Amino acid sequence: xxxxxxxxxxxxxxxxxxxxxxxxxxxxxxxxxxxxxxxxxxxxxxxxxxxxxxxxxxxxxxxxxxxxxxxxxxxxxxxxxxxxxxxxxxxxxxxxxxxxxxxxxxxxxxxxxxxxxxxxxxxxxxxxxxxxxxxxxxxxxxxxxxxxxxxxxxxxxxxxxxxxxxxx
Amino acid sequence: xxxxxxxxxxxxxxxxxxxxxxxxxxxxxxxxxxxxxxxxxxxxxxxxxxxxxxxxxxxxxxxxxxxxxxxxxxxxxxxxxxxxxxxxxxxxxxxxx
Lengths: 168, 97
Known about the structure:
The complex is a heterodimer of chains A (about 170) and B (about 100). Chain A is mostly helical and about 170 residues long. Chain A has helices at about 1-25, 30-50, 55-75, 90-115, 130-140, 140-160. The radius of gyration of chain A is 21 Å and the shape is globular. The termini of chain A are far apart. In chain B, about 80% of the residues lie in helices and about 0% in strands. Chain B is built from 3 helices and no strands. Chain B has helices at about 1-20, 25-50, 55-85. In chain B, α2 (about 25-50) runs antiparallel to α3 (about 55-85).
């Protein structure tokens, strides 16, 4: 049982990393977006395996279903689907980026080796939604309501920005 | 499995950072930012197996902010495309010439 769990965990991890690498190396935005959707599906599997089925469902619905559709829609709207020559930066910038990436990865792995303070593992609830909902609507109610204001402002801002310029 | 999840999260985050630093297509840049947000979400979920459901609440907040950011950012991309005729970021050099 445990080995099957580990096998599945490594499978989803490998899928996520490989899809992310393919995503970042695609030249055309449309295959890149589809590989990113693949990353999000793999991450959703990881969330389910990490005792967060509700977050996994939300990941598929919101990220893979809504946000990426907006990206692909904009690619279609701007007619950017053709492969262009290349959009990579110059060699110096790429080497610098590789160096920054390696340094950041080493940094993160060192931080990760630090001791994570462990508390008693919370027993897995029968209902996946209830603990999240109780926390969201009691402890974090103010943040939740502020989020709705942020969404409203984002909607108004997006409409204003994308609208044709009107003479004032 | 928390350690492995954190390592996967670090690798995904670094892939996103390298993508932001090496690409010039504004839409791919935004997608790299989304990848970085997803990597952080993974570490939130992994740590919340030890520390309760607060991490899940944080992930939901991050997803909401990511949706808002995608909407506004892509509207800006559309405005830039309408003005410059391209989404190549190296074409945006009003302050250089």
